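>> received
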Amino acid sequence: MSLEKKKLIGAITVPLVLLFIMWVIKLVEIIFGVSLSGLGTQPLQINGLQGIVLMPMVHGDINHLMANTGSFLVLCTALFYFYRDISVKVLIGIWILSGIWVWFGGRDSWHIGASGVIYGLASFLFVSGAIRKNNQLAALAMVVAFLYGSIIWGIFPDFFPKDNISWEGHLGGLVSGLILAFYYRKAGPQRKKYSWELEEEDEDDEEDKPAYWKVSKKNTNVS
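>> returned
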């Protein structure tokens, strides 16, 4: 198996496992005729705190879950493929920060669904790719903008004619991705340096080193 195939399999594993859990939860609801919306987030309520972690795993109906499945799979796989070293930290950060945002600032209702995480992933991939001087990541940012740029309207409450869309979750996810993109800007993949840049850095290092004849004898130990 080629290295690229192994990398792709590794990148898609976590998203598939999470989606599998989401679908199992929904099938349990359908088969047993129950609703697990109580696992979501209810703002400023103690019994809604668990939703900070569990909210993305629960969805309103099959259509809601299907609408999130494709975007979550694509964006989460892209995160784990291109940002492998920091992918787990970024995903957990988006997951928790967006949930905290909803718990503190959401409407008095149960908030469920992975849309907030999806917004966070899209935000992180776009902003991180834009601020890093890396051609591959910049191209990824453009692809994300082309495919998911229209979701920006989802953070505005007046965009939805219905009240059952958690625009607060969308906004929380977007802000979380933005914060993490800047926080981890110096971690993970960086711009490749050319040979002449490395040579210039070596020359600068040599210039910064003190000449051996200027070293104080008081600070020199001889054995």
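>> DSSP finds eight helices and no strands in the chain.
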